Amino acid sequence: MNDVKQNNIPPFNAEIGKLLDDKAIDLKKKNENYTRAYIALLFLGAFFADIGGLIDDTISIFAAVICTFSSFFIYRLKFKKNLVEQWTYTRVIAETIKSEWFKYFVGGGDYPIKQEVDEETALETFNTNIKRFMDEYKKNIHSVGGDYIEPNDLLIDMKSNTYRDKSLAERLEFYRTSRMENQKIWYESKSKLMRKKVNKYNSTFKVVVGFGTLIGILMWLDLLQNLNIPYINNADFFSIFIAFAFAFDSFSSISQYERLSIVYKKSYYDLTESIQELTGTNNDISTSEAVFNEFVEDIENKISNEHKSWSLTTSTKNIHSIS
Predict the structure, then answer these.
(1) Most buried one in 9, 149, 194, 315, CB count within 10 A?
(2) Is residue 80 in a domain?
(3) Does residue 42 belong to any structural domain of this protein?
(4) How many angstroms separate the Cα of 319 from the Cα of each of 11, 33, 89, 143?
(5) What is the DSSP string of 67-89?
(6) How far does CA 184 lie from the centroid of its chain?
(7) What is the DSSP letter of 146?
(8) 164 burial level (CB within 10 Å; 0-12, 13-18, 19+)
(9) Per the structure, how many domains does the chain have?
C-alpha cells in the first residue's frame, strides 16, 4: 500500500477499535495471569504435600493447604470476574466495527454505491448500525458485570467519504491491499506463531514427563538408593514431575494455541483463494458494482467467521452474535 492511499484513509480507520483492542488485550492478560496463578499454586500445593520427607511434615502440610486454598480463592475470583466473556464480547465488537467500516468505505454489503442511493442515507445507515452494535456490546458486558468503554470517534460524517466517490477499480485495489492482503499476512504470521508455541509446549511436556518417568523407574528399581540423596529417597519425586508436566500442559490448553493456529490457517487459505479469484478472467468483480458489493460482503463474512468462532470455544454460554 503506497503513501497516497495511506493519506487518503480517514483517521477513523486508523483509530477504529483501538480503545476496544487495548481493552481486550488488558482483559486477556488479566485472565491469563489469574489462570497461571491458580494453576501454579495448585502445583505448589501438590509439591509441598509430596516433599514431607525433605522438610518438617507439619510445615509441608501447612504450606500445601495454604497454596491449595489460595489456588481455589484465585480461581473463584477469576470465575466471578467473567474475564473470558468480557474479552470475547470486546474482541468481537472491535472486529465487527472494523468490518462494517470497510464495507461502508468501499461500497459493500448494506452500503452499495448506486446513483439512486443517497449518500447521506448510506452514511446514516452506517452510523445507525454502529450504534446498534455498541448498544448490544454494552448490554452484553453489563450482563456479566464488566465495564464497557465507548470510543468518542465511532460515528463519522460526510467528510470521511474519500473513497466512496472513487472508481470501482480504485476501490477494489484499495480493498485488496488495505484489507485482504493485510489480513492475509496477519493470519499467516499468527498461524505460524501459534504453531511454534504449540510445538514448544509439546516438546517441553514430553521432556518433563519423560524425565519424571525415568526417575520413577530408577526409584522403582532402587537404582538411586546408593546415591543417598534425601530428596530423592524421601520425596515422591515421580509425582512432582508428573504434576509439573500437567500444570505446564494446562498453560498451553488455556492459551488455546493449537485452536488459534487452526483457525488462523483456515482464514489465511480462505483469503488467499479470494485474492486469487480477483485475478481470474471469468468474474465481474472489477466491472460490476453489484458483484463487487456481494464480493466484499462475502469477504467480511469470512473474516468475521474467525472472530465469531472465539465465542464458540470459550466457557461462555449463549453469547449472541452482534454482527
Answers:
(1) 194
(2) yes
(3) yes
(4) 31, 24, 8, 11
(5) HHHHHHHHHHHHHHHTHHHHHHH
(6) 16
(7) -
(8) middle
(9) 1
Q: Angle CA(70)–CA(76)–CA(82) in degrees, nearest 5?
A: 140
Containing 195, the helix (H) or strand (E) segment is helix 182-220
pLDDT given for residue 63 in this prediction: 87
* Distant-in-sequence contacts of 207-210, Cβ < 8 A, 24+ apart: 208/241, 208/244, 208/245, 208/248, 209/241, 209/242, 209/245
Q: How far apart are CA 145 and CA 141, in angstroms?
A: 6
Query: What is the pLDDT, as a whole number, of residue 279?
Result: 80
Q: In the chain, count H helices and then E strands.
A: 12, 0
317 within a domain of the structure (yes/no): no
Residue 40's pLDDT is what? Answer: 84
With CA atoms as reference, report the closest residue to 171 among 2, 279, 303, 293: 293
Angle of CA points 19, 24, 30, to nearest 5°:
125
Q: Are 152 and 15 in contact (CB under 8 A)?
A: no
Give CA–CA dist 203/249, Å, rounded: 11
**Rounded to an integer, what distance in angstroms lies between the CA atom of residue 305 and that of residue 99?**
11
Question: Is residue 221 situated within a structural domain?
Answer: yes
pLDDT means per 10 residues, the chain with 323 residues, are: 40 63 89 87 79 68 88 89 90 88 91 80 89 92 88 69 85 92 92 89 80 69 58 56 70 74 89 88 85 94 75 45 36
For 197, residues 6+ apart whose C-beta sits below 8 A from its C-beta are 252, 255, 257
Distances (CA, A) of 216 to 45, 224, 236, 237: 20, 10, 9, 7
